[in-house]
Amino acid sequence: MVDTFEKDIKKIHQIKIDLLKISKCIDACTDEEKSVYQDIAGEYSKALKVVKASIEDAYDVKLCCYPFDE
After folding, report:
1. CB neighbours of 21 closer than 8 A, spacing ≥ 6?
2. 65: in domain
3. Residue 70: its pLDDT value, please?
4. CA gap 21, 57 in Å, rounded
5. Domain extent for 19
6. Distance in angstroms (rounded) separating the CA atoms of residues 62 and 51
């Protein structure tokens, strides 16, 4: 179970890494490209929420995330 949990946590971390890379692209790209990268970032954000909820349900844990809306 520990190996599976670690793999699942690595999935979350990889999604977060990808989101950071996408945000750098948004900062550096042209105006025409921004909407594409923003759409990609939105999909990654949705995936992050799904994976997080799945891990919390499967392992009966609560994963902390910084509340960005404060």
Report:
1. none
2. no
3. 45
4. 28
5. 2-59
6. 12
Total count of domains within the chain: 1
Q: 15, 44 in Cβ contact below 8 A?
A: yes
Q: 3-state DSSP call for residue 70?
A: coil
Q: For residue 47, how far is the Cα from the chain centroid?
A: 6
The residues near 40 (Cβ < 8 Å, ≥ 6 apart) are 22
Polymer length of the chain = 70
Nearest partner of 37 among 55, 53, 19, 50, judged by Cα: 19
The reply to whether 8 falls in a domain is: yes
In a domain, residue 25? The reply is: yes
pLDDT digits 0-9 by tens, 21-67: 999 999 999 999 999 999 999 999 999 999 999 999 999 988 876 55
Q: Please name the residue that has the structure tokens 């105006």.
A: 31
List Cβ<8 Å contacts ≥24 apart for 62-70.
63/12
